[in-house]
Amino acid sequence: MEELNFGWEEWIALPGLGLPSIKAKIDTGAKTSSLHAHDIEVFGPDAKPKVRFNVYPVAGNDDIVITCSAPIIDRREVTSSNGESELRYVISTTLDVNGQSWPIDITLTNRAGMASRMLLGRQALTDHITISATEKRLQPELSYDVYHSAAVRHTAPKRALRIAVLSREAENYSTQRLVEVGEARGHTVEVIDTTRCYMAINAMAPEVHYDGKRLPRYDAVIPRIGASITPYGCAVIRQFETIGTYCVNGSAGILASRDKLHAHQVLASKKIGMPTTAFAASPKDTSNLMALVGTAPLIVKLLESTQGKGVVLAETKKAAESVIDAFRGLKANFLVQDFVKEAAGEDIRCLVIDGKVVAAMKRTGADGDFRSNLHRGGSAKVVRITKQERETALRAARAFGLGKAGVDLLRSESGPKVLEVNSSPGFEGIEKATNKDIVGMLYDMVEARVKPQPVRKRKG
To answer: Across-strand partners of 359?
Structure first.
């Protein structure tokens, strides 16, 4: 390494933490370097713990915050210059100065009175560095302007994330894949039973609690909310949104897509193709309701139906009237749809992640069943979709603001028609049919959305 001459203060970079510019005081009296960190929080397995923390890189300016994380390599007692002892977590990262880089250990401390964001101790000052104690900033000047630039987002490193999967089924394929793939990427993934969450709702410090304890700050939440708990599950997601946690799918989009009447109204408002649909509350309107849709056969569908349950094919007008009367007798909400005969018991599931159709499969119903759901014995195989089908799937997912969605399409003579937009699509069928790592693509989106970057606090 070339020899470097340091003054008593220098501009440095810690790219591994997403800190491209920070001033450091050179402190030869200290052995280990230290970083002024806020909200220090340990997470991850006991065997390989990690620490997450916030850094305010600009002294005296709390508007810019960078969230960092790193593996913990030690925890040691450190005595400061004023004689106070403190147990601190120790991490390792790379120090960059004037085009040269070398590894250093850093202790994390939250001392609001520190004038310097960072102290560089003796261990970080290798043999190729000489110190001029009466001068400062002998190395090239950096600038805090980088924190106002979009470039910091694109150059930020990948970091270990703390992720919550909201699911009541910890053992099912999709939840297991979310845990396995996330942990293989170095993240900590915790499965949280949505129904065991409860909330402290207040303006200053909204919280989510679980099993008697406040849940920690998560970098991201991946909802897998079952239809039976949609209202409460969305309330929990809304609470995470209030806290500021990134949620792959938002509460509003989940609620709208789950309510089939609301969902069809959203699709219609965006001029997205769908089967002709009608809805009425009064039993006196049965004949008029059927007439709006067309002639039999007709589909009668419960608003809360999932996985093909509560979906009935009425092949004659008389059969349709009988089914509608039965549903009305149960005081159930339902809608009536045109039956797309040319689809012949097949539909196409398009998996949309982050505004892209990442996979598509054709689902065929079991013999004698017009429903193509895999849960009902249907089969699936990979399919090549048309440009129009791709665009329809993207528009449908966008209409509900969903980061991940399963969009089910029918191929009709007048073009693709959206049957449903599923906010919690399963991964098993489509991963096996297409042989694609769908969950990996989901984590690509999560990692991109929660990169270390400046977060500008809104003024009160």
So the answer is: 351
Token representation of residue 422: 């599923």
**Sheet of 64-71: strands edge to edge?**
38-43, 50-55, 64-71, 455-456
* Fold of domain 162-247: Rossmann fold (3.40.50)
Element (H, E) at 95: strand 85-97
- Which residue, among 134, 118, 119, 136, has the nearest Cα to 28 in the 3D structure? 119
CA 265 to chain centre: 26
Q: Kindly provide the residue ranges of all beta strands, DSSP E only, lying in 186-232, ordered along the sequence.
A: 188-192, 197-200, 207-210, 213-214, 220-223
- CATH-assigned architecture of domain 344-449: 2-Layer Sandwich (3.30)
**CB-CB contact of 455 with 149 (8 Å):** no
Domain ranges within the chain, ordered by starting residue: 4-157, 162-247, 276-339, 344-449
Please give the sequence-ordered ranges of beta strands (E in DSSP) within 117-251, or none if there are none.
118-120, 129-131, 162-166, 188-192, 197-200, 207-210, 213-214, 220-223, 246-247
Question: What is the tens place of the pLDDT at every residue in 250-293?
Answer: 999 999 999 888 998 999 999 999 888 887 665 556 677 787 87
Residues in CB range of 100: below 8 A, 6 or more apart: 1, 2, 4
- The superfamily in CATH containing domain 276-339 is ATP-grasp fold, A domain (3.30.1490.20)
Q: Are 89 and 72 in contact (CB under 8 A)?
A: yes
- Minimal CA–CA distance to 448: which of 244, 157, 66? 157
User: Per residue in 180-190, pLDDT tens?
Assistant: 999 999 999 99
Please state the pTM of the whole predicted model.
Answer: 0.77
CATH 3.40.50.1820 assigned to 4-157: no
- Alpha-carbon distance of 384 to 393, in angstroms, equals 13
